[in-house]
């Protein structure tokens, strides 16, 4: 698989990439290596990673609890305190070994520790491989508000090794798959049309599909690294999806949604809105709705759930001047951004999603 060279770092594929990782670590004079992981990855992924880590740099492993609910400042402060106690300094480097929560949080910790140290991402979930670990976004949540604290910080290297996916449950794989569908919907109609019928997808060549998604995301990010314009299209499905995800995350009576599951819901709703405000044909909306719901089912939402979820829309980072802004589809494979959307239209979209 061909590696991808970005302006700031290399994206390496496969087990052979660890040799380059070892060479990089040994040649750059790092004083200490911190490996950040969670308790699930500590058990299932870390032994494989350590067996492929050829380095002379002394390392320490820092383990946190898994889950979006732990992607908060308190967890970051605990990690930073541990790094200080273990004699971390400005010549330390941090490697994240985990899914999207770990890559988001680890990149943020590295960017603020001692005003910034180097970091490398080793994503272990499909979602992290195709989305969270790529492009330099870092962040943590505050009171359920997704990624409202964070910085843009580029890793020094990213290694995508599909062997980690063997440790995942099917639900986690499907969550990552939603981001791949999104890449097709916003940028590549042929890619989406292949992925939408999941029964016919050749998962034996999953690495090639991941590579294609990473190419799409990197193409967009390269043109707009700090999300001033085009990069906003990568948020398709996220305005509504994040609102529902945050509501479920903060409501003890609800089973927490995985990020990809929330994005899948959001894509259906925002495709409905695209039919109303952009140029998406109604038949394309219905096809998108059918394809996504055939994979993810329908999240049970009461009228109160809808109204409570809408309260979270005010925290969306694409808003300005108090107005909700969405990414919409003109057609499958072509998207537009910064489209003002009313809450009433979002309610209509959620009702269409449910019916």
TrEMBL record:
GO MF annotation list: 3-dehydroquinate synthase activity; metal ion binding; nucleotide binding
Keyword DNA damage assigned: no
Requisite cofactors: Co(2+); Zn(2+); NAD(+)
EC annotation from Swiss-Prot or TrEMBL: 4.2.3.4
Pfam families: DHQ_synthase, DHQS_C
UniProt entry keywords in alphabetical sequence: Cobalt, Lyase, Metal-binding, NAD, Nucleotide-binding, Zinc
GO biological process, one term: aromatic amino acid family biosynthetic process
Major enzyme class: lyase
Keyword Membrane: no
Domain 3-dehydroquinate synthase N-terminal: 62-174
Highest taxon of source: Bacteria
Annotated CDD domains: DHQS
Residue ranges annotated for the 3-dehydroquinate synthase C-terminal domain, each copy included: 176-319
GO terms under cellular component: cytoplasm
Function: Catalyzes the conversion of 3-deoxy-D-arabino-heptulosonate 7-phosphate (DAHP) to dehydroquinate (DHQ).
Protein name per Swiss-Prot or TrEMBL: 3-dehydroquinate synthase
Biological source species: Myroides albus
Protein encoded by which gene: aroB
